[in-house]
Amino acid sequence: MKSRNLFLALFSLLLLGLVFLSADTDDQSKKTYELMYQDIQALKLQVAELSSLMKQNTAELKEVKDQLKILNDLLRRQHAADEALQTEIDNLPAQYQKVNSKLEEVQFELSALQNIQQAIQSLSDELKAGQKGTVKGSKPAAPAKKEEPPASPQAQPAVVTIPAQEMYNNAYSDYLKGNYELAIDGFKLFLQQYPATPLADNALYWIGECYYSQEKYPEAIENFNDLLLNYPNGDKVPAAYLKKGMSFVQQGKKDEALATLKLLVSKYPQQEEARLAQQKINELVGK
C-alpha cells in the first residue's frame, strides 16, 4: 500500500515537472518568436528607408544628368562660337589688307587728279601769258617762248608726275589681279625711273607682298629689309615688319619671327599691325 502511494507521488511529481518544463519551453519559444518578429519589422523599416533613398537618389541622378546635358550643350555652343571667333580673327589680316589696299588706291586716284589739275593750271597760266604777249603786239615768234627755259620748268613737273603715277597704278592693279610677276616688274621699273618719289617705299613694299603671295619668303624678307633700311620713316614700315615676321613664320623660323614681331609691337604699339603681331606672338608662344 505504501509502495503504491509512493509510486503515485513520484508520478505526480514527474507530471508536474513535465508541465513546468513544457511551460518554460513555450515561454522561450514565444520570446524567440517575438524577437524575430521585431527584427523582421526593423528590417522592413530599413528596406522602406532604403527604397525611399534610392528613389530620391534616382531623381537627383536624373537631375544631374539633365544638368550635364545642358552644360554639354553650352560647351558645344561655346566651342562653336570660339571657332567662329578664331576664324574671324584669322581673317582680320586679309580684311585689313583689303581695306588698306582700297584706301591706298583711293589716295592714288586723288593724287593723280591733283597732278592733272596742277598740269591744267600750269598750261592755263602759260596760255594766258601767251595771249597777253600777243595783245601787246609782240613779234610772231613770241608764242614759241612757251618752250624757253622760263616757261618750261613750270610745266615739266606735271608731265613727269603723271606717268609715274600711272606706272605705279598699273603695277598696283596687276598686284590686285594676282598678276604678281607683272606687278613686280612694274614696281621695279617704277623704282628705277622714279626712285625719289613719295611712292618709292610703297612700291618696294608691294614687291615684297608679291613675293609673299608667291610663297617666295626669302625674296619677300629681302625686299622688306630694303624698305626698313632705306625708308625708316615711311608709312609702310609697320606693315613691312609684320609681313617680314609672317614670312619667318611660314618658313618655320619661330625665333626670328618672334623677334621681328616683338620689335614691331615695341616700336609701333598703337598701330593695327602691332595688334595683329601680338595675336601671332600669343599663338606662337602657346604652341
Description of the molecule:
Helices cover 85% and strands 0% of the residues. It is mainly α. α4 runs parallel beside α6 (237-250). It contains eight helices and no strands.
Brief write-up:
With 287 residues, the chain is mostly helical. It has helices spanning 2-135, 152-177, 180-193, 200-213, 217-230, 237-250, 254-267, 272-286. The protein has eight helices and no strands.
Pick out its properties.
Serine Threonine Protein Phosphatase 5, Tetratricopeptide repeat, 287 residues, single chain, 8 helices, mainly alpha, 0% strand
CA gyration radius, whole angstroms: 51 Å
Portion of residues within helices: over 70%
The coarse silhouette is: rod-shaped
What is the tally of helical segments? 8
N-to-C span: 122 Å
CATH-level-4 superfamily name of one domain: Tetratricopeptide repeat domain
Mean pLDDT: 79
At CATH level 2, the architecture of one domain is Alpha Horseshoe
Name of the top-level CATH class of one domain: Mainly Alpha
Uncertain ranges:
137-162
Number of strands: 0
Largest sheet: none
**How do the SSEs run, as a string of H and E?**
HHHHHHHH
Question: If you consult CATH, what is the topology of one domain?
Answer: Serine Threonine Protein Phosphatase 5, Tetratricopeptide repeat
Structural class: mainly alpha
Strand percent estimate = under 5%
Q: What is the strand and helix layout of this fold?
A:
Blueprint: H1 2-135, H2 152-177, H3 180-193, H4 200-213, H5 217-230, H6 237-250, H7 254-267, H8 272-286
